[in-house]
């Protein structure tokens, strides 16, 4: 008999004063003891809702409205909270994405374990110390972490602790909800390995919820694909790799590729060989007229508006310039006497040519976002110089920032945070148009609508009137891109522009950035930890490790033929379902 | 915001709110109406709004509603409740009900004006303090802390005693001087947390001036805090006004709930069995203060469009 049997389970969200939204629609499946099952879907597919229901954690406004969850012979969908609490010992546990933030910062890790032991009374007082040490040992942490507080541990260590806490009740079913999504790429890999080892050793039933089909295929034996509240495909990992049946699964799979391959292709983004892309970059760079730098380029001359969306208003503006970074370091002063000063960027030099696209890759803490701040004048470097034409960015004053930002704009990582929730799309786009051009009134409005059309948000009138929360993540990111284009910049710094988006939306946003670069001749500094996307949209690449450049060159060359260990580790951390198929034991 | 986003409400309920006008906040009437409806949708706040409405109507239509003039002392002294004088008369021979109705004018006026003024000061200082860094911030910090540590009531008494019998204007001034600091501190910490948001950085990239960033990007996101701090300050002002007048520090010839209490105490109303003289103004003061506190339950939705669409309470 199976451990868990879910029959016709439906979960509905019933917010006050709004229409109920079905999140999970009549889902049925069985889990056997010792299964390791992946649950994959994009945001809004209902996968986490299903995970919460499985572990009896559904809270209002979510409600299980139909179906049953038989766990070891008992229907847990109908249990009261106190009955559920008893069930948790030897029953089911959940590890959350933000589980690492679930630790109480003023209690030591030891106390967290002891609280659970005391609440369930299943470990005698004198054995608790040994049991706690054993549990942290299982997640590959030294026993000394028991004395520490959550603030003293790294994100990966905290997530391991929360896994150990979940293990302390000897669950037979563990649900991992995006356990590694909030972690750094390299740490992600290590934590996932731990989970895999643990599952093998302890033989509990595990459900791994993730948006990342590639990772799930690498780790689990059986995969359920969720789309719009339904399980559209339920098959072994090998079957899904070899012959995905549902079009949605095929679509998800198509977005994975190996950045090391000679030709990389995902839907919407053409294959990018080194030669073709470089030619375009050179053509754009060469085609630009060489003009003496104009001293007052802020106010462009306005010509009557009669444009197609891609016509640029470059007349009267400064000639295209390269951003030249030479010998730049950034040291953050220490906070207290015990700390060491942090060197975020160490002696980095590069030139971003007009029309070029360069990737800046590295794990978190490698200094890539700091470089973005230095280039955009948000922070000043400790040493070294950054110039853009005749403008010294490294010592720029606040008054000159506006001049810099007419030419250098930024696309932010998190589209949910980068738009003011109270302003309409039109307001967000009108402001830079008014600030950076002399267009006013109806001309300004026409320009705003033009920008929306450029980023593919049509019908433009409708999108202009919307508030950010009425847009999807991908649409928001398009608005952010449109805003960056409003000043008609020469350089766009894109800081992880797609990392917060669903896989299926990423390609669209990347393709947009890429086409803008080619048609408008904008140069782009693309900051990412994702080597696949770097391969798709950039020509040059720089790999950063702890503030220093460890490798640079043509993107295709570097990724196909990495020299530095760090680059190789980054490449290995990428889930590559197709290439990893033979390695998979199932 | 998580990529899983299980609780993200479906964006299917998209409505096109405005057609063709250039700015979400361009139509103040519409904004105010929407704010009112937001507050009205919370039951507790609805009670508060109704209560406050009654008092405002009392104050505005006092001459129509009151059976006699406020200072008309042509009646028998210290009369009990009767058909002619529903709440009796005072020791000076004035009708208590008429005094209560006229007294609402002072309390409502002081509440709104003092509350508004101290909120404006709190917003100006709190926001600039939160956005500025360096020396200017330190100086403001010092001043605000100074006002926070001075005990308010003794300061009020000292100032009121110094500005002898200045009337309502003096009381408003005293309440504002002692009342703005707490709001400024609350608004400052919210400003500091908002200023590190991406959309503020994005506004810098859009070429916005610091003043515009503070007042158009940051301020609207704190509407609920500001409205909350306004009602808090109003409550405090109403209580302070009554307190000062009860202590005899206001102009004791004006008719207000505070002076009613002052005169009732002076004429030993409790000893003579005229408890209504103390009870009625006291109840009015507490009901007015309660109405403001109840409204405060409803202001959370003001600066969150998502809450506004009625997702949760």
TrEMBL record, chain A:
InterPro entries: AAA+_ATPase, ABC_transp_ATP-bind, ABC_transporter-like_ATP-bd, ABC_transporter-like_CS, Oligopep_ABC_C, P-loop_NTPase. Residues 6-253, 323-571 form the ABC transporter domain. CDD domains: ABC_NikE_OppD_transporters. SMART domains: AAA. The keyword Cell cycle does not apply. It holds the Pfam family ABC_tran. Keywords: ATP-binding, Nucleotide-binding, Transport. GO terms for molecular function: ATP binding; ATP hydrolysis activity. GO terms for biological process: peptide transport; transmembrane transport. The keyword Nucleotide-binding applies. This is ABC transporter ATP-binding protein. It comes from Cryobacterium fucosi.
From TrEMBL, chain B:
This is ABC transporter permease. The chain crosses the membrane at residues 47-70, 106-132, 139-162, 168-187, 218-240, 276-299. Residues 104-296 form the ABC transmembrane type-1 domain. Belongs to the binding-protein-dependent transport system permease family. Keywords: Cell membrane, Membrane, Transmembrane, Transmembrane helix, Transport. The keyword Transmembrane helix applies. PANTHER family: D,D-DIPEPTIDE TRANSPORT SYSTEM PERMEASE PROTEIN DDPC-RELATED (PTHR43386:SF1), OLIGOPEPTIDE TRANSPORT SYSTEM PERMEASE PROTEIN APPC (PTHR43386). CDD domains: TM_PBP2. Its main location: membrane. InterPro entries: BP-dependent_transpt_permease (IPR050366), MetI-like (IPR000515), MetI-like_sf (IPR035906), OppC_N (IPR025966). It is found in: Cell membrane. GO terms for cellular component: plasma membrane. GO terms for molecular function: dipeptide transmembrane transporter activity. It is a multi-pass membrane protein.
